[in-house]
Amino acid sequence: MCQFCVTHGEGEKWYLRAENYAEDLLSDLRRRRFVEGFLADSDHLRRDRDRLERLARAPGFVRRAVARGISWRMKKVHFGQVVPLEDLERILGFVSSVVRLACACRQVSLGREARYCYALSLAPDGGEFRRIADRLDPAYFKGPDMQGLETLTCEEALASFRGHEDEGLCHSVWTLVTPYIGVVCNCDRTDCMAMRSTVVHEVPVMFRAEYVARLDPDRCTGCRSCLRSCQFGALSYRAGVGKAAVDASRCFGCGVCRVACPTDALDLADRASDPVAARLW
Ligand code: SF4
Ligand code: SF4
């Protein structure tokens, strides 16, 4: 289990505990200010992106020390975890409102609005998060779609998550001052700061999933359709045996590769069951 399951999940998966989505957590003034600042100022991501690019040019010992410091700080305020679709479905079983909003990362990387983020609430009307977001300066919505926030039913949200998975995007949950979980994001390593930070710059700001991919060699025909679906470089092709292979040391357990496989040769196993993956978060 990841560190957050131990500290915020009482031994269960921390993101499956309704307490971590509770409205009363958002009544905490420090957390409210953090959420307001986070939503209102996407320029902070631009500054972070520039810092990461500068850090990539620093000596290795500096990079490692700074990366540890950033991870430590982010675990307190805004840290994520990869979550496969089936666990998102379980989350949607106890939250009662989902609001789709513009992805702050893509505001920076694409320079326009793209709706890949979903605010979750136990309150049917979107609760405090919605009230904070409703007060945002309309200038936040810079793209062609100016309709403001969209409220989705849980069924609509699940269908939307499936669509993102078909696009090859990796689902993740995010804290807004830990352990409060405010949003689900749908990430790729090019445009999403957190994934880029974790995978490309080796500055971890998200945990791997509680799972790891497992390949059934009897089902694998070696068609290689799955190889491009993995954003983490965990899949390869073994020409000698004519089958795909999973590198458990790279796998983040997102489960997106399953969509690409026509023979259901890929599934997810508990991370703890794999001796290599169990040590990696
Ligand atoms: S191998 Fe599959 S489950 Fe693992 S990171 Fe790649 S796409 Fe995700
Ligand atoms: S898509 Fe499925 S059958 Fe094709 S190589 Fe990958 S695991 Fe094997």
Describe it:
With 281 residues, the protein is α+β, with helices and mostly antiparallel strands. The chain has two domains: 3-207, no CATH class; 211-279, Alpha-Beta Plaits (2-Layer Sandwich). 36% of the residues lie in helices and 17% in strands. It is built from eleven helices and eleven strands. It has helices at residues 3-8, 23-26, 29-40, 43-55, 60-77, 85-92, 104-110, 127-134, 154-166, 193-200, 257-260, and strands at residues 80-82, 97-101, 117-121, 150-152, 170-175, 181-187, 206-207, 211-215, 235-238, 243-246, 266-270. The protein has a seven-stranded mixed sheet with strand order 4-2-3-6-5-1-7, with helices on both faces. It has a two-stranded antiparallel sheet with strand order 8-11. A two-stranded antiparallel sheet has the order 9-10. Strand 9 (235-238) and strand 10 form a beta hairpin. Helix 6 (85-92) packs antiparallel against helix 9. The termini are close together. The mean pLDDT is 90.
Structure at a glance:
The protein has helices at residues 3-8, 23-26, 29-40, 43-55, 60-77, 85-92, 104-110, 127-134, 154-166, 193-200, 257-260, and strands at 80-82, 97-101, 117-121, 150-152, 170-175, 181-187, 206-207, 211-215, 235-238, 243-246, 266-270. It is α+β, with helices and mostly antiparallel strands. The strands form three sheets. The protein has a seven-stranded mixed beta sheet with strand order 4-2-3-6-5-1-7, sandwiched between helices. The protein has a two-stranded antiparallel ribbon with strand order 8-11.
